[in-house]
Amino acid sequence: MLRQLEGSAAVAETVGLCRPEVVCAYPISPQTHIVEGLSDLVRAGRLGSCEYVTVESEFAALSVCIGASATGARTYTATASQGLLYMAEALYNASGLGLPIVMTVANRAIGAPINIWNDHSDAMSQRDCGWIQLYAEDNQEAADLHVQAFSLAERLSLPVMVCMDGFVLTHAYERVDLPTAEQVDAFLPPFEPRQVLDPADPVTIGAMVGPEAFAEVKYLAHAKQMQALDAIPEVAAEFERAFGRPSGGLVRGYRAEDAETIVIGLGSVLGTIEDTVDELREDGVKIGALAIKSFRPFPLEEVRAALAGAKRVVVLEKALAVGIGGIVSANVRMALSGIALHGYTVIAGLGGRPITRRSLRALFEQAIEDRLEPLTFLDLDRERVEAELERMASGGRSGPHAENILRESGIVGARSH
Amino acid sequence: MKRATRGSTLNRVEGSRPTFEVRIHGRGGQGVVTAAELLSVAAFDEGRHAQAFPSFGSERTGAPVVSFCRFGDTPIRTREPIAEPDALIVQDPTLLHQVDLFAGLRPQGYVLINSSRDFSELGLDELSERFRPERLLSVPATELAREHVGRPMPNAALLGGFAALTGALRLDSVIAAIRERFRGAVGERNAAAAAACFHEVERERAVVTGA
Predict the structure, then answer these.
(1) What pLDDT score does B47 carry?
(2) Less Cβ around it within 10 Å: N or C end of chain B?
């Protein structure tokens, strides 16, 4: 049914339709509305025997999920930012044990400086922890991906993160076509675990593995992610047949077929990119976009195929690998082995800085003329940065960067030194 | 793999109305975010595409807060904040001297300010010269809210005023959105405030335009 509702509410409703048996989460902005929504559903008795477990931290939340999933329960959690980092050790355990937990990550920056706004630093920091990572472009897709995520997770016995931009999507009201319980039931059969802790048939899950077998177990984790490269488009195609709309998959091109310049992005920024692509297309510029929907596994072949005819690629990233620059770009470059084209990395939208059509247009125009630096920071205030570098170079006690920059910007509350 | 369901806001369908962009200014606790949400629901109820979002996370009681709503006949893809609004709703006139409320307002834009003073008394004569004066109105929404809701919450009332000032949404869809969000007596009282504000703005407009 078409409804106008908040992204978080759409996700909570949809997760509810997936009939989770255990939900365990710890609230953190901007994910909180999702788990509040689910706790309301459980309290109202709408999720049957589903147990909502409250805990004292994200580490505990995911640990409870691991235990619950190992007993064969369909298990869900959600987090963001520092909460995801606090889960880090348990993330590797969930994937290493092959437990099909589904988690929403409401993408948010990581401190310091503390910042509650959107970027992809949190999910990108955990890209290699063995979870599948899917990125939603809008709230319809965010909702749909959760249905697909449970299907994928249980098919492959792997945990799945559904990444949606914090605030930009979680707090945005837009129209979402919510499926019915019957539709989701028909799409998503009850969870049949590959492994289960059952007192009647005892097994060990999580045994110590020495040098004689560790690499083999790790290889299997990789092999399963490679299987996911087939499973993700299969599940997306089944979803489209069942629900009548496209959602998910590995990549999605936009006006990319004949494009000389292709802009790559993940998540909700694709909408703004597409509007900008349309503006430039009206001026006769051959530009297109490529959305990467699955970052883990990374669809090397699909990215390579999409870029094969292009002259240049601009990778727009909402995260920064300090000391080198791009994270997505590094992965895109692996897809380009042997293909010669200009590659640009653009760091944009850090800590919630708006990514505007005006800035994107200027950026793409520079790229088309190959005047862009290999690593560009969109809308960076060079003056403020240079002033702080100078202050630091002058020696002595120059003070903390964040507070100095705030003071330079005329933002109240920063003490002068 | 183009998505047929997601059109461009630029390549508009012939005869369709362009996307209308509203920016709402107020203070934390005045229902600024809820107001944008209600506008989007009203637009949705009229079968239109709509997107509402807050100025992400800075809401604290009393602090300046901004929310945004876009609506139109085609799917809305952009996610950027609204820099060049077609309409501004100012829930708290004390912001006039604190925030650059009118930044980016389109030349044909509308302004609705919650105040019992007119633009001249608010020191906004300069604004009347830059924009179409019949599209700039103040309305005592807090007083209307006190009267009808029993609380000084101007947000729902102002949405009725917005419908009258701009004609971009109908009063009945605004009222339906209010009733959907606030059930029971609270919804009815806010709906009454919105209707009263609608009629007050209509009356003021008749005076300004001499109609």
Answers:
(1) 97
(2) C
